[in-house]
């Protein structure tokens, strides 16, 4: 028991849950205490400055430099009073990670004195070196200049450095020297603005008091937790984020006893710790529980405005990793870190709210409000139907490719679940005959819309197999991967809904110009939209083979490969949609396509290299050493005249030899496939080769390695096993 695996196991088994000191205040007293929030601004800014800042946030307007100086001064005073020594523009480049460059709150004068300094110009704009961030061909590597710009709609916050100091983090956009977006936030903000304008214009047909629509989001974050020592004893977890080998344990998730079970003490202590820190940062995390797979958990927040929710989720993932280290744990955000058990998603719960307090996706008991609800519901259905492939592209990644279509995640086929009652109501709407409305009649009851008020929230069951499910007053997009930045998906979803609402307004205005009754015109348009989109609705089991066949008959896409899915971004229809909504120009979309393909290639390439190294330098070498032991035992038995007793051992020797030979040939073939792919210049074609010819070797090699795990003596096996990784106490 001298190998690294058993040393790691000994360390892990002797760990105890850390004690976490609970705050002495109530949550309301310390929630957001590390954020430069609305309350802090009201206290520290002049009434004029506070009004201008909040007005800019509410209207997507600009803040002039004079006001920025006052805000910067107040922000510095607040931050330094809480122990901050540095500030940074915190942004989200297209690496998929967050980024920051820390600068101190001081400068040196001409006579060598240190003075505190943080001006409005530093708050509004920084110039990080942009040369090493992905740009997808937008600029040359030697052209290093890029700019980060303050996003006042997302509050600045303090991040504890873990060494006694804090850093003021200023959420920011990131653009190139020539103005193209190099981040996730910039297109998202434009998409949210586009939806606000489009949805508000439609709301005006129903209520003139509605002057703003705010999309909301609640991303449920799934993740795995493993012991830190065991994590570092698995090179594939360290380098690839997932286990490339591992035989299924005798007990996995088949008893279904982990879901909502008692949270293991060490994990619970970690959860409590990061929740306290999250609350200080204004992140409204309120739900924690065990997920289905052993070692898998979930944290869920209260709904927030989409941009803030995306920032908070990215920050939460950073925070979880830091807090886990304190507890000698590692958090795994990979979509499929373990074969044979459920993978992890980031369920994006999305809706739209008005400045009058109305959720536009909440059914109502009032006929007029029901028509408004139906208008937005049907337009969302049509938007998803018409742009299903683009929505599929927004969730494409190397990690999510392992999860989609498996037995715990929605399939790659995009469909919508509305529930039996709501689907029936829409069917009634479609098939209802035309009605003449006389003066003085109640138009809503005359149209038959009096049936809708009975549709109350949660009047139908949920469907966890649906990628895009209506859950009472919101849509839950379940297909988003756990490691993803939700901004990509939210940019697409809000863009396609904004575009569809603009089309609806155009169609309705054309009818109104002809003198048609508004309510009748709306119903006729909704009937037409629903008739043309209802094939995307599916109430059944999305995991079944029957659904795959049925979806094909309906003409729905089933894009399984990430490179194929990503190609939808650069289709003419997609490029046109982003351009007419003002979210991204052609160059920005095409650059994202190139970046995502490169990320896919590099992820699969890393997995392939790690797999080859582990197979040959860990598994095969161990198997051959064990084979020598068995061979010596077999020889001794034969020499003792126990030939029959030696036969079972010879069978094992033959099995090891056969499996080692298959592994060696598989690794060699995989390397040749990788070389072939690397010589292809076109990024799209290279990605497809990695998705097929390189990845095609993975399952074969893994199968043989996992079979060897069953044969080789447990004392000799070099890799931490699933039964040791998955059951954290």
TrEMBL record:
Signal sequence range: none
Stored Pfam families: Gln-synt_C, Gln-synt_C-ter, GSIII_N
Superkingdom of origin organism: Bacteria
Occurrences of domain GS catalytic (ranges): 184-619
InterPro entries linked to this entry: Gln-synt_C, Gln_synt_N, Gln_synth/guanido_kin_cat_dom, Gln_synth_cat_dom, Gln_synth_gly_rich_site, GS_Type-3, GSIII_N
Residue intervals of the GS beta-grasp domain: 85-179
GO MF term list: glutamine synthetase activity
GO biological process terms held by the UniProt record: glutamine biosynthetic process
Family, similarity comment: Belongs to the glutamine synthetase family.
Name this protein carries in UniProt: Glutamine synthetase III
Species whose genome carries this gene: Spirosoma foliorum
